[in-house]
Amino acid sequence: MHQYHTPKKSWINIDSNSDFSLANLPYGVFSIPGTNPRVGVAVGQHILDLAALFNLGFFADLGLDKNPFASHNLNEFMALGRPVWTKTRQGLLNLLDAQNPELSQKTEIHPQVLIPQADAQMLMPVQVPNYTDFYSSQEHATNVGKMFRPDGEPLLPNWKHIPVGYHGRASSILVSGTPIRRPWGQLLPPDANTPVFAPCRLLDFELEMAFVVGKPNPLGDPISVNHAEDHMFGMVIFNDWSARDIQKWEYVPLGPFLAKNFASSISPWVVTLDALQPFRCPAPQQDLEPLPYLKESDRHTFDINLSVSILPQNGEEGQVCQSNFKYLYWTMAQQLAHHTVNGCNTQVGDMYASGTISGKEQSSFGSMLELSWKGSRKVTLPGGQERTFIQDGDTVIMRAFALKDGLRIGFGEVRSIVLPAHPKNA
Amino acid sequence: MHQYHTPKKSWINIDSNSDFSLANLPYGVFSIPGTNPRVGVAVGQHILDLAALFNLGFFADLGLDKNPFASHNLNEFMALGRPVWTKTRQGLLNLLDAQNPELSQKTEIHPQVLIPQADAQMLMPVQVPNYTDFYSSQEHATNVGKMFRPDGEPLLPNWKHIPVGYHGRASSILVSGTPIRRPWGQLLPPDANTPVFAPCRLLDFELEMAFVVGKPNPLGDPISVNHAEDHMFGMVIFNDWSARDIQKWEYVPLGPFLAKNFASSISPWVVTLDALQPFRCPAPQQDLEPLPYLKESDRHTFDINLSVSILPQNGEEGQVCQSNFKYLYWTMAQQLAHHTVNGCNTQVGDMYASGTISGKEQSSFGSMLELSWKGSRKVTLPGGQERTFIQDGDTVIMRAFALKDGLRIGFGEVRSIVLPAHPKNA
Predict the structure, then answer these.
(1) What is the value of pTM for the model shown?
(2) Is A152 in the B-facing interface, judged by CB distances under 8 Å?
């Protein structure tokens, strides 16, 4: 990875506990009423409008004819490749340096290029051609195994050999703030042997993170585990909404389908792997030697704090889970190496989610399925309300940040309210 | 569906047993060396170049400023909606009418607009945002159940209630003619309990067809079973390549993944639902009443003859299977209604494959897994060669056509040679 020169201080006021510190510079797509969507970077409480900066000649050193930031998504920028990512990041760090008058002194253009986040609407940052969901938390897979196969080994025989995953639905990945409708579907009521068609009764979140591919591989050309991170542009928080009762009835033998594809929600700011470098940390030791194509010469992950809160309608927000990305048994590099080892090609904007991130403690379980142990114990919220699964009117909020030696890099949040199922005839 | 006026005869010579009769007019994307890919229609042994015709003013009645046929795929044309599809089809039928001098007499432009298929390369006709594979043949699902769960009921309890399906990989759908590499992957050798990393030993085809969505539905707005066909633009032959040994080891609990996503192959010509109307026929009676959202007021399917042949390297082509699309238990309308009943949105170009289409007779089984009954019986080819699964150098050819009262509408073929696995270190 490139070594960046990061200035000590910016001329933009950034709160010391802001997710969007000078060393973060996550990319997103925003609009303000009456204007086109475009690419910006979050800095403190502002958005730096990269499309406007480009038009004003600030990115001349990129040598580009066309403005890659005047776009509805990040794909065009990502497709330009790492040399452009690196130049852009270093250019932004320089522009934001308190010592550099280049932009700071041009106060007349500040209203044009510096937008308060409160005035902007965040949009889907990425056009996602392919989406895969992994199942990489040993604790989560073990919990699920204990609940659904109480008489067998909790982990299936392949789990410690394969970063198990499956293809998900790209079309219904939604940006934070988009309301989620409780889905209708086929359920098998307890003790029945014929399904009914009804609104999902066991609606759940799954606390996940996802990485976005910026450098694709062509068909037939696997990505090696030791070069996998070169292909990753950045990461987002990922809420893999799950209808547990629909899932239970439909998922044999080909996996989850309608239980998942009604919606997944992501945070709007893509935090780059460049920004996350200071938070590299060891990944859990693997007690079974993986096959050579999954063996990393420098095995590591990232120390990212995660939390989930529920805000009931007319109620008080309460945190129900605290976890960490570093708990995952399989790393992102292993996931991508496995996914492509058969020659499968990736595309710019592809999204690869981690699977539910649970830790060892009950308080770190990343889904209501686990927190309520299949509905058998109630989770109490601050106002005294109790939950086993998600109710209509609940807002689910996931947050993520990395913190080390006073340096904070945050993801912001993914926040979605759950609306009642559409009234209609079954 | 619109009633078209189809002329009796064209001024273009069309062989009476051509797949590409005057009543077919399937859409594809082609290029000839040194020119851009563009949209054409197959007529006999020729391609009518729609991009060139548009530029010459032949589609003025569509009222379009931009040429939707000067495109690398059909998505732009499909997105214009059914009124434009209908006008285009009727316009083409008129232009091709032997009685109509409009184009037939302008012989000076024929070289420009009428390309011999032999001179053109066919490309991926559609940019596929989302791909789903169903499992809708009762005979196939029963065969698989008998082989893999010999002691249980062959069909799982949900199968007659749900058109079972799963999300597949869109990025690796390839057009006919693209060679397929035998994939590497994790396999569990017989009697072993630790996997090895090796080239797939049990490579298989799956005989399927797929429909392409031309009219999408927005998130939250299900497509009703009785309006589902309005959303379908056309159909292709679909070879769902499968690595049986990789599949067996990886697929629990989340479904097939690397066993499928190295490649799927499609025929290059998209045959419209308009063209297929004469071949509507009853769909199999369902012995379990489906839930109301899957109940069709006019249940039907299409009578389409299917076949698979294997051409060994330096050998003679031999047909190994003959089946029919009409055997499927779940119809395309039921598949699409089910897929969207939870609010899942579709997008223009989405591809929905049927699952392996097997019939009752052994000769109609749509995969080598079934034809060789898990490798236990050999399939003999004309030159005397025997197969249980697909070998390196084999070309697999799938063909499809509908035939009724002398009217023939064909899909052409999907043809792919299998190359040896990449030599590399495991």
Answers:
(1) 0.98
(2) no
